[in-house]
């Protein structure tokens, strides 16, 4: 049998990789993102100061210019903030918080939104109408407004911020999953699975869901970026995270009062870090959309 | 002998319900109404063990819907499906799943009918494992056997569907169905999407399997040439209704219903050269608004007044020869 | 003089996975009013041949070699603008999906009148009359009403009729029909074939009917060319091809048609799969599926012509056993 002769033996992953690499910008963005994540992960080992440890923070080091020497003897390359925290250290620790909040909120919203979307698609009828109207209402409010209201009710802290972000974002996933699942469910392989007497749960989770993943990944990246931005916004407005666990938004907010007095660096450097993170996630997301969207396939 | 498959008075109506906006619009006097399609309208069919029944018709005739009801994928609006003389709807859930496995379906599109995220061994092996037809240890050799049976190389079972050609993918679909040891296969346009030279291969496979596994087929197709070759008996449908059912050779020798005659006359054949194509007139009407009386009357050369008003009944001309036409009544 | 004379046509696609020789040396001629059936399976290059004739091959595809002489002028060297003028006036094409030529947001009359006025200066009223007559000629009932319809309001068969009507608006010398009936039902297919056949006969339009279905062209074509993997492997008069096929592939195709076999018996099948255009063997592309293939088949095959102008591209053709 020569059936195998010459057929493309490229696995889906190989094809995906090759197509992703076609955009140099996306590859660069992915690289930047990897470096950012790595810096955040390694923060305790590559920073001169733990900005959360009050014993290491000296108020006398406050508001130092970039490149000044700290009381403890190391150089503060990015300067320090009002409380005497080394900005380089604070940014890396802040990245940790921001990325954690963004990823956790993004992941939870994905799981919850996907489950709700699948339920809507599979049950149909009244349940579906009910869920989808809730999604419509949710999406007609700006996400920041919903998050603000929730944080006002729940209070501050990482866990509460994550809950607020999930509440603001699940609807995007639910809507996407429902639409994709409806398309997939109409395909013959789902009919075949039903004909084979497989249970509803198996059909949904083993057959329909894996084929809805492509758009989910795309939405997931974009929504994670927007979760990070949203958390920073809330923190900047002073309703997000506490001063003791500074995210990038808290840092920017802290420096804001010094902006007018010429101490630009306290807000500027955390701002750049936030910008680079969000832009690179979005660039990666854009390329993922191009690669994973079957309608754009050449 | 009990029929393997018998359907009685089977109907399927698809209703497009009005959503909230449409309901409001309709209250305000807009011209929106619920749309009802009689996809299948009172069809009865008996299929004996070992028989191959060809189901022929053009688009919108309801042949695929009928096939899906027989295969248990769609629930009939009215009527019953009897397997071995037992109504499948009344069975306990375990018997029902056994009944569901006995009837399997082969689909038209070799690309949409396989889950693109699963390897061939999962596609073929999932259902028998779930239903306990084979244990995990015996699964690999079980899958290999089935792949060999449909003419695929078992060494390729770790691959994904997109790495196969159309003909091979159709074989994978057949293997998936055979894996649950069915007795009855519903083939819905199973070779229509394949290249001509591959169609013959798959058709041969169906015939080999029939002999080897004692299978019974409902072979749905728009291609009379294919059905003529493989089927013992042919059922012709038009807009949801059976218009003629007869043994294959008899039907081809002497078609009774004007629609069957038209179909037979218009199938392109190799032995007709420089022919003048003389088609029957008219479009296939929309199933949303089928013509009154006999659905075929607007296109029928023999239509008279009664055809426009009265639905002809399906009458038995001879043993196993049914026609639904006012020109041919039993008495 | 022949309407169309194609020689050595090669259209290749330069893809990421390699060069696909979709059309790899195709020759044929077509006289006025003649009907050529171009038969092949998916990937045989039959459709790309049609697109190449019209100069409609999009990148990464390119006509890399050969001549297309249309009424004496070479289309391969013609300017884009000149091709534009020819398309829709002297050469027309209809597709499997009529929506390829119909614009979904424009009414039928707008599209038909535009098609006329693009190639001829006429008062709108005259163009409208011609459009209405065009619809009537393809058997569309109440053409005045249909002119005001949008494409989506018509059935698949009706749309294909409209596409044919548009194709014939400017009395083309050549019509290329690419699987126009494949998506249609049997009774509708017969109607469409009938319309195209009648119009071509009346106007003396040459017709290339591209299809995978030998049975359709058996009843329609004067001559048949069978394509396999980018080449015409056999060409000749319809009777010759259908009754005395010589290339093993043609023999196999005809043999696998159910009506050529005894009822209920296994069909004579061609083994193997349709070829992968990225990794074709040297020499004859059919050798791996061929019962007659041997060492010789790995070399280049030239066409051998018969007296009637038909030819076969095979070292071991049927019907010449002595010479093989």
Structure overview:
The complex is a heterotrimer of chains A (298), B (331) and C (324). Chain A is built from 12 helices and 2 strands. Chain A has a single domain (15-296), classed as MetI-like fold (Orthogonal Bundle), CATH 1.10.3720. Chain A is mainly alpha-helical and 298 residues long. In chain A, a hairpin with a 5-residue loop joins strand 1 and strand 2. Chain A is elongated. Chain A is 68% helix and 1% strand. Chain B has a domain at 5-12 and 36-231: P-loop containing nucleotide triphosphate hydrolases (Rossmann fold, 3-Layer(aba) Sandwich), CATH 3.40.50.300. In chain B, helix 4 (120-130) packs across helix 5 (139-149) and helix 4 (120-130) packs parallel to helix 6. By secondary structure, chain B is of the alpha/beta class. The model of chain B has no long low-confidence stretch (mean pLDDT 87). An 8-stranded mixed beta sheet of chain B has the order 6-7-8-3-9-10-12-11, with helices on both faces. In chain C, a hairpin with a 5-residue loop joins strand 11 and strand 12. Helix content of chain C is 29%, strand content 23%. Chain C has helices at 46-54, 80-86, 108-117, 124-137, 143-147, 156-168, 186-203, 214-218, 238-243, 248-255; strands at 4-15, 18-30, 35-39, 61-70, 73-74, 91-94, 174-178, 206-211, 223-228, 231-237, 304-305, 311-312. Chain C is globular, with a radius of gyration of 21 Å. In chain C, helix 3 (108-117) crosses helix 4 and helix 6 packs parallel to helix 7. Chain C has 2 domains: 4-90 and 173-319, 3-Layer(aba) Sandwich (Rossmann fold), CATH 3.40.50; 104-169. Chain C starts with a strand and ends in a 12-residue tail after the last strand. With 324 residues, chain C is of the alpha/beta class. Chains in contact: A-B, A-C, B-C.
């Amino acid at each position: 049998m020569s059936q195998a002769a010459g057929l493309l033996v490229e696995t889906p992953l190989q094809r995906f990789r090759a197509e992703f690499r076609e955009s140099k910008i996306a590859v660069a963005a992915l690289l930047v993102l990897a470096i950012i994540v790595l810096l955040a992960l390694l923060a305790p080992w590559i920073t001169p100061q733990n900005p959360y440890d009050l014993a290491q923070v000296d108020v006398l080091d406050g508001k130092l210019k970039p490149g000044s020497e700290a009381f403890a003897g190391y150089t503060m390359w990015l300067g320090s903030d009002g409380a005497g925290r080394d900005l380089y250290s604070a940014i890396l620790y802040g990245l940790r918080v921001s990325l954690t909040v963004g990823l956790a909120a993004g992941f939870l919203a994905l799981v919850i939104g996907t489950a709700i979307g699948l339920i809507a698609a599979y049950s149909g009828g009244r349940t579906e109408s009910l869920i989808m109207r809730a999604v419509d209402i949710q999406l007609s409010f700006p996400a920041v407004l919903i998050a603000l209201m929730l944080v006002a009710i729940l209070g501050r802290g990482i866990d509460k911020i994550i809950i607020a972000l999930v509440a603001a974002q699940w609807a995007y996933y639910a809507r996407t999953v429902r639409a994709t699942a409806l398309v997939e469910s109409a395909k013959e392989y789902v009919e075949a699975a039903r004909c084979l007497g497989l249970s509803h749960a198996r059909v949904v989770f083993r057959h329909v869901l894996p084929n809805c993943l492509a758009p989910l990944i795309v939405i997931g990246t974009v929504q994670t970026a927007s979760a990070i931005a949203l958390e920073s916004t809330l923190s900047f407005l002073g309703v997000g995270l506490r001063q003791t666990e500074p995210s990038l938004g808290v840092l920017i907010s802290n420096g804001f009062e010094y902006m007018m007095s010429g101490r630009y660096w306290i807000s500027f450097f955390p701002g750049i870090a936030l910008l680079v993170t969000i832009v690179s996630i979005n660039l990666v997301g854009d390329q993922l959309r191009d690669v994973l969207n079957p309608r754009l396939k050449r | 002998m009990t029929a393997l498959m018998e359907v009685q008075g089977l109907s399927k109506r698809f209703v497009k319900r009005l959503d909230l906006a449409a309901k409001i619009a309709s209250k305000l006097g807009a011209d929106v109404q619920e749309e009802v399609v009689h996809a299948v309208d009172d069809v009865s069919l008996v299929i004996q063990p070992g028989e191959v029944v060809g189901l022929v018709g053009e688009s919108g005739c309801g042949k695929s819907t009928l096939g899906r009801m027989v295969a248990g994928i769609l629930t009939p609006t009215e009527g019953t499906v009897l397997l071995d003389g037992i109504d499948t709807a009344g069975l306990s859930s375990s018997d029902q799943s056994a009944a569901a496995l006995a009837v399997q379906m082969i689909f038209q599109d070799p690309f949409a009918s396989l889950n693109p995220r699963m390897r061939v061994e999962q596609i073929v092996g999932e259902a028998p494992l779930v239903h306990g037809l084979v244990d995990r240890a015996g699964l690999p050799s079980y899958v290999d056997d089935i792949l060999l049976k449909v003419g695929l190389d078992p060494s390729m079972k770790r691959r994904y569907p997109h790495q196969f050609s159309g003909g091979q993918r159709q074989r994978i679909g057949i293997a998936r169905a055979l894996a649950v040891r069915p007795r009855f296969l519903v083939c819905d346009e199973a070779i229509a999407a394949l290249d001509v030279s591959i169609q013959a291969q798959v058709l041969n496979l169906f015939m080999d399997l029939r002999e080897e596994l004692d299978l019974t087929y409902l072979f749905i197709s728009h291609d009379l040439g294919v059905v003529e070759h493989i089927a013992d008996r042919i059922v012709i449908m038009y807009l949801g209704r059976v218009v003629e059912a007869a043994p294959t050779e008899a039907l081809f020798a002497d078609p009774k219903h004007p629609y069957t005659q038209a179909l037979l006359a218009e199938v392109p054949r190799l032995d007709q050269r420089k022919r003048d194509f003389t088609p029957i007139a008219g479009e296939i009407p929309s199933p949303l608004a089928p013509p009154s009386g006999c659905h075929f009357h607007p296109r029928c050369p023999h239509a008279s007044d009664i055809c426009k008003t009265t639905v002809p009944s399906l009458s038995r001309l001879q043993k196993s020869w049914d026609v639904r036409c006012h020109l041919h009544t039993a008495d | 003089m022949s309407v169309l004379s194609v020689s050595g046509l090669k259209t290749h696609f330069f893809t990421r996975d390699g060069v696909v020789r979709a059309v790899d040396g195709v020759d044929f001629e077509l006289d006025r009013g003649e009907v050529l059936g171009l038969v092949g399976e998916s990937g045989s290059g039959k459709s790309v041949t049609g697109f190449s004739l019209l100069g409609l091959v999009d990148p990464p595809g390119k006509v890399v070699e050969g001549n297309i002489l249309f009424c004496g002028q070479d289309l391969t060297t013609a300017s884009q603008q000149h091709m534009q003028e020819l398309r829709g006036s002297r050469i027309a094409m209809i597709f499997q999906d009529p929506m390829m030529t119909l614009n979904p947001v424009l009414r039928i009359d707008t599209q038909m009148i535009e098609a006329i006025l693009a190639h001829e200066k006429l008062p709108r009223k005259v163009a409208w009359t011609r459009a209405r007559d065009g619809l009537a000629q393809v058997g569309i009932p109440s053409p005045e009403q249909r002119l005001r319809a949008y494409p989506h309001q018509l059935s698949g068969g009706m749309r294909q009729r409209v596409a044919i009507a548009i194709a014939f608006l400017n009395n083309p010398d050549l019509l290329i029909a690419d699987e126009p009936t494949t998506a249609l039902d049997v009774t509708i297919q017969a109607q469409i074939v009938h319309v195209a056949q009648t119009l071509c006969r009346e106007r003396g339009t040459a017709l290339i009917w591209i299809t995978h279905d030998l049975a359709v062209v058996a009843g329609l074509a004067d001559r048949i060319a069978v394509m396999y993997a980018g080449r015409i492997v056999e060409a000749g008069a319809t009777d010759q091809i259908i009754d005395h096929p010589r290339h093993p592939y043609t023999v196999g195709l005809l043999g696998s048609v159910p009506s050529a076999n005894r009822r209920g018996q296994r069909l004579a099948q061609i083994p193997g799969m349709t070829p992968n255009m990225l990794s074709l063997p040297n020499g004859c592309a059919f050798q791996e599926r061929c019962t007659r293939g041997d060492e010789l088949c790995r070399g280049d095959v030239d066409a051998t012509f018969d007296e009637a102008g038909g030819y076969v591209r095979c070292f071991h053709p049927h019907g010449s056993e002595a010479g093989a």
